[in-house]
Amino acid sequence: MALTNHHDGPDRSLPTWVTQDTSETAEEALKALQTYKKKDGEKVIVRFKAVGNAPIMKQNFFKITSSNRFQAVIQFLRKELGYKGNEPLHTYINLAFSPAPDDTVANLFKSFQTDNHLIVNYSTTAAWG
To answer: Signal peptide: which range, if any (predicted)?
Structure first.
């Protein structure tokens, strides 16, 4: 027994969005990729402020790529201060909380920026427990 397709109704075509021109789709994909690349390169100004007996930096404003994780900011700060991995260094945003190392600079900036800067306070001892 062979199966046959009986078509008794009017011709049904796919909606126009399904049969979209592939060159138009490729163009939209390229635009999206370019937008993503641009965002990845955006920088935010991070201002470092010493707390307690932490050394004060001569230069305390830095432009940091917003797609970086906060861990990169901590590593950068350690390098600038000449701190080794075993030396204690505590970081806080706006003297309020210590962000997770996997938070992005962009998210922290969007949520907690002050005067268009992300303020990172740093201390050699836990400032708030």
So the answer is: none
* Band (21; pLDDT cuts 50, 70, 90): low
Dihedral in degrees, nearest 10, Cα atoms 121, 72, 65, 35 = -130
Which CATH number is 95's domain given? 3.10.20.90
Residue whose pair of structure tokens reads 């350690």 in the numeric block: 78
- Report d(CA 65, CA 44) in Å as an integer: 6
Q: b or e along 17-37 (b: 16 or more beta carbons within 10 Å of the residue's beta carbon)?
A: eeeeeeeeeeeeeeeeeeeee
User: Distance of CA 25 to CAs 14, 20, 28, 30, 33, Å?
Assistant: 17, 7, 5, 9, 12
Pairing label, strands 61-65, 90-93: unpaired
Determine the structural domain holding residue 70 and report its residue range: 43-123
Is 25 inside any structural domain?
Answer: no
Choice among 27-31, 43-47, 84-88, 113-117 with the minimum mean pLDDT? 27-31
